[in-house]
Write a structure and sequence with these properties.
The chain is mainly alpha-helical. Helices cover 79% and strands 0% of the residues. It has helices spanning 2-16, 19-48, 50-55, 62-86, 91-95, 99-103, 109-131, 133-141, 146-171, 177-193, 203-212, 218-222, 228-252. The longest helix is centred in the first third of the chain and has 30 residues, at 19-48. It starts with a helix and ends with a helix. The model has no long low-confidence stretch (mean pLDDT 86).
Amino acid sequence: MRNAWIIAKRDLGSFFNSPIFYVVTTVFLILYSFIFFNILNFFSFQSLQAGQLQSMGMNMNLNEMVIEPSLQNMSVVLLMIIPVITMRSFADEKKMKTFRLLLSSPVPLREIVFGKFLACMIVVTVMILISSYSVGSLFLLGEPEPGPIFTGYLGVLLMAGCYVSVGVFASSLTDNQIVAAVLTFGFSLFMWVIGWGAQAVGATTGQILQFLSIVDHLDRFLKGMIDTSDLVYYLSFILLSLFLCHRVLDSNRWR
């Protein structure tokens, strides 16, 4: 996979040497920070009424009331941000007339696809790591449980991997970056809301829709549980999207 890393470093250089990464990261941090501090402010307000809440049987849990909803909202912000990151993957190559040169290189196609995916994932991971200052500050204010924090971030990264893989696939379908971004956002949002129709159909179909919903698999991660079915879902989602991207690019070689 040395060639994949070379492709990834090439793309990372274009990210970090352009204003796109810094603008996107700034927007992401502003949106996420605004949401986080509003959730924290609401928690602080409830803490002032802790005596009354405890008498009603409600416990003040930092993980459940601050970290869990913050990470859920982070996944929503990433849903809007990641298409902007992935839209350049192959669409920009086609627009700059370097796509044919890339396909004719001695690098195996699977490593090109993985390299593009890896570059975008590194960018997203850096953004998420920068935003972790928020959770880190909670250890100065209280005693959150580290287990659900670790699994929660793992779940967010896996979900982000699904968004990125869809974005790389969508970028392979067109030479227009805006079209690639819209396709990525539209399909990712559809996989987010597909579970909403579970109650309107039969029991078996409803279970299938809920399993296909990308957000339902995040819930257990946020609660500190790592379920094999959730890992299989996210990894299968990523691999399928990258496989489809590979097939699309492979078909372009013969046109």
